[in-house]
Amino acid sequence: MKHHAFRYALIWTLLLLLLTACTGGQKPAANDANEQILAQLNDMKQELENAKNELNALKQEGQTVSIDTSTVENAPVATTRPEAVVTEVEVPVEMIIAEHCTLNGEDAVRVEGRTAVHAVADEREGYVFDHWVVDGSEDDTSGPEADFVFDSAAAVVAVYRERRVITTKDCHFTLLDKKGKSVGKSYTEFDFENDYTNPETKETCKGGEISFYIFADIPKGMEVDHWLINGVRYEPTYNDIRKFRVEGQTEATLYEVVFRKAS
C-alpha cells in the first residue's frame, strides 16, 4: 500500500511540474532557444502521456488512494488502533457447604488449597446429633463438633435423630425392679437419652436403653381394641390386652391405646 501511495505522489508531482512548464509565462529570446524549449516540451509531453497511462493502469487494479501532493513527503502514516474489548469471564469458586451445621462459624467456606474447617452441629429441639455425612460418606465416629480438611468442593451434613424419650397416650408405664417386676412411680414420659438413675433401684442405667411395664388407662365401659406404637397398629393376640412388658427399648417411642365399647 505504501509503495502505491508513493508512486501516486510521484506521478502527481510530475504532472504538476509538466503543467507548470507548459503554461509558463516567459518568452524565448531567440529561435535556437525556442527550438530547444519546444524539444523539451515534446519530451515532457511524452513523459506526461506515459504518466497518465501508468496512472490509468493503477486505477484499473482497483486501488483508490487520496493524496495531498503538497505534503507527500511529510504525510504521516494513518493507523487505526482497535478499541480494547473487556470480556467478563465467570470463574467458578469452589466452596465447602454446610447443612444443619456451621463451618468455621459460617454457612460455607471457600476452598483455598488444603482447607481445614471446624464443623459444629446445630441444636434442634427434640432431636440430637447422630452422625456426619461428609462429601457423601458417613462418619459415625466424630461427635457434634469435628474437624475436617478438604482440597476441593464438598458438602458437610449433620444428621439427627429424635431424642430418646418414651411418651404415652391413654396409658402409663413403670420401671422395673431387679427382678423385672413393675414397681414404684408411674410415668407418661421419660427421657433416657443420657445415663439415668432408676428411682426404684437407685442404680445408674446406661443412656439409650430402657425397660418398663406399660398399662392401658381404660375408661369405664370401654376395653382395649388395639395399640398404636409410633403410629403402627398392633392387634392383640387375645381380647382386651391391658398391659405388656418392654425390654431394651432403644428408640424414641409413642405408645397409644385405642378403645372400643366393652362387650
Tell me about this structure:
A 5-stranded mixed β-sheet has the order 3-1-8-5-6, with no helix packed on it. β10 (171-176) and β11 (182-187) form a beta hairpin. The protein has helices at 2-22, 31-60; strands at 95-99, 101-103, 108-110, 115-121, 127-134, 137-139, 145-150, 154-162, 165-169, 171-176, 182-187, 189-191, 196-197, 204-205, 210-216, 222-229, 232-234, 243-249, 253-261. 11% of the residues are buried. Helix content is 19%, strand content 39%.
Notable characteristics:
alpha+beta
Helix and strand sequence: HHEEEEEEEEEEEEEEEEEEE
Helix segment tally: 2
Reported for the largest beta sheet, the result is: 5 strands, mixed
> What separation lies between the terminal Cα atoms?
116 Å
The strand count comes to 19
The average pLDDT score comes to: 81
The parts where pLDDT drops under 50 for at least 5 residues are: 22-30
How much of the sequence lies in strands comes to 35-45%
Q: Topology of this protein?
A:
Layout: H1 2-22, H2 31-60, E1 95-99, E2 101-103, E3 108-110, E4 115-121, E5 127-134, E6 137-139, E7 145-150, E8 154-162, E9 165-169, E10 171-176, E11 182-187, E12 189-191, E13 196-197, E14 204-205, E15 210-216, E16 222-229, E17 232-234, E18 243-249, E19 253-261
Helix pairs in contact: 1-2
